[in-house]
UniProtKB/TrEMBL annotation:
InterPro entries: Ice-binding_C. Residues 152-176 form the Ice-binding protein C-terminal domain. The keyword Signal applies. NCBIfam families: PEP_CTERM, PEP_CTERM_FxDxF. Residues 1-25 form the signal peptide. It comes from Massilia rubra. This is PEP-CTERM sorting domain-containing protein. Keywords: Signal.
């Protein structure tokens, strides 16, 4: 019986020591930020302080599409001396305001220079957010920066007006040609 109690005590102690030595990553995400879109473009970014090694972040940048649909393009990057310092960007994603994933970005480069890009066609009217995710790989500070561009998608009525205008120009050109030949 004494041997059994010792075995149980050893198991409890081993379990407790395993649980206490496991390091859990802290979430060091910044508060969601408004993305000030001026002339269909905007810059964004975040910085993180020293001593955050192993901690993760998922920073959100909110914006709205108003009036007409827009195509959306984004790029984000972080630069460090090597792949063992600063941060590692692990994702770039576009979500609706309700948290529905619209599209995920593509990793263009990793290591000392992390680059991610993202494209979304014909975003409808509404509210969205861009999320940059990552992990601090060392105790040094780190930061990332990026740019977005929104390009209006012409409405079908615009195409109709353009075709009508081209038809009028064709008619006038043909009429002038007929007058010159007479």
């Amino acid at each position: 019986m004494k041997h059994m109690k010792s075995l149980i005590a050893a198991a409890v102690l081993a379990t407790a020591s395993l649980g206490s030595s496991a390091a859990f990553a802290a979430d060091i995400s910044n508060n969601p930020q408004a993305l000030p879109v001026l002339d269909n473009t905007a810059n964004f970014g975040s910085s993180f302080l020293l001593n955050n090694q192993g901690n993760t972040f998922a920073d959100k940048f909110r914006f709205s599409v108003t009036r007409v649909e827009h195509d959306f393009d984004a790029i984000v990057s972080s630069i460090t001396r090597n792949d063992k310092t600063g941060m590692d960007i692990t994702g770039l994603s576009l979500f609706s305001s309700t948290g529905t994933l619209i599209t995920s970005g593509t990793q263009e480069s990793t290591g000392a220079v992390d680059i991610w890009s993202l494209r979304a066609d014909s975003l409808g009217l509404g509210n969205y957010y861009l999320q940059v995710s990552g992990k601090m790989v060392s105790g040094t500070a780190g930061s990332f920066g990026g740019t977005v561009m929104l390009a209006p998608v012409p409405e079908p009525e615009t195409y109709g007006m353009m075709l009508a205008g081209l038809g009028v120009l064709g008619f006038l050109a043909r009429r002038r040609k007929a007058v010159k030949q007479a």
